[in-house]
Amino acid sequence: MTRRFFKLLGPGLLYAGAAIGVSHLVQSTRAGADFGFELMGILLLANILKYPFFEMAGRYVYATGDNLINAYHDKGKWVLGLFLALTVLTMFPIQAAVTMVTAGLAINITGISLSPFWMCGVLMSITLVVLIIGRFKLLDNMMKFVIILLTLSTLVAVIAAMMNHHGFDPESITLFDYNNKVHIYFLIAFIGWMPAPIDVAVWSSLWSQAKNNTMEDKPSLREVLLEFRIGYYGTMVVAAAFLTLGALVMHGSDEALSANGAVFSGQLISMYTRNIGLWAYPVIALAAFTTMFSTTITVMDAYPRVLVPTLSLLFPKLPVMKQKSSELFWMLVLSAGGLILIYQAGSSMRFMVDLATSLSFVTAPVLAYLNYRVINSSKVPVESRQGIVLRVWSWAGMLFLTGFTLFYLWWVFFGAR
Asked: In terms of Cα–Cα distance, which of 404, 417, 394, 416 is closest to 360?
């Protein structure tokens, strides 16, 4: 039984590897550092209410053997066209954001005196080479151990911070203010990638489909969902740990998290070393960098994989290219677009992260609804569809995301100046 379960491990851990990145290392830490534990409830609520829309991916693949791209197409070309539009809207800011965070870590760890823009260019070039020669599989396998290492290190750092914590200085504590635009913008950005953009459900369906194709003995629905839940709720625990670390170590102190990627990276790593000890520096530095570099590669790999079949289904008369050539073309487009955004942002990692996460938040209700329609369609056998609890859960999530999105749009155009 145990051996079989380990064979099933894959899509859930890949999801965790894609999710544990900017939303955890940056946004959760910022939430704790700026507002203490005030946003812990929002963090847990966002994770819980988004769960059905990620779970649908594995459920759909199990029931049909197909992925969500084909599922959107089956619902109508306009559905797949809408998904394509949302993908194009978000893919450049997302690639730029994860690369900037990775570049900040690289600059801080290596001490190389490159500007963030040029370091991002170097990292994107390395990413392209890794994907072209097909070595992402090696990094992906290593990521399972890196994620576990980062998770255990974070939990140890949190326990140490709890033991060393002596309380907050009431005069230096910042409370969340719903009449403050800066706070509202951060709240939306925080929810946007907590635990990950809903686009990742499409990537997860491709991973699940590939996993199923390699297994002679197909898993049951119960096994598929259990494997995914381990990855999903594991990322929620890690996000809560990062928020706790930021709250205990930085909230109420004289130190504020920097918007500069390299400076922020140094602050992040120092939160571990001051609680665990300087001996932990190389371990934490390697784990944090590898986690973010893997996320950078995952994003660079995932969007072309999504775009190629999407465009071929929408525009079957387009000139046909080999899949590898098509994916390489879109990797180059994604890299160029990401670098243009990074150049415009300068050294402000915070601006790029907030832009990417806010766009993901605004598009989330639409993607959530698309996934809901797909999993409850006639193509899915009744026994594999959502039960009444998950349907109610899904509608609660859609109302939550839609309500917050409308509130955000109203605040942007009509709220306090």
From this structure: 404
Q: How far apart are CA 209 and CA 190, in angstroms?
A: 30
Two structure tokens written together for 166 = 């002596």
Tokens of 101: 């965070």
Neighbouring CB atoms inside 10 A of 79's CB total 16
Contact yes or no for 405/364 (Cβ under 8 A): yes
Q: Which amino acid is at 254?
A: D
CB 201 within 8 A of CB 53: yes
Domain holding 108, by residue range, is 2-380
Looking at the 3D structure of the chain, how many domains does it have?
A: 1
pLDDT at 337 (0 to 100): 93
Could you tell me the pLDDT band of residue 171, with boundaries at 50, 70 and 90? low
What's the CATH code of the domain at 274? Answer: 1.20.1740.10
The per-residue b/e assignment along 300-319, b for 16 or more CB within 10 angstroms, e otherwise, is bbbbbbbbbbbeebeeeeee
Provide the pLDDT for residue 324: 76
3-class SS at 205? helix
Mean pLDDT of the residues in the chain: 82
Whole-angstrom distance, CA of residue 280 vs CA of residue 250: 19
Residues sharing a CB contact under 8 Å with residue 333, sequence separation 6 or more, in sequence order = none
For residue 90, the surrounding DSSP H or E stretch is helix 77-110
Q: Is residue 334 part of a domain?
A: yes
Structure tokens that stand for 84 in this block: 């394509």
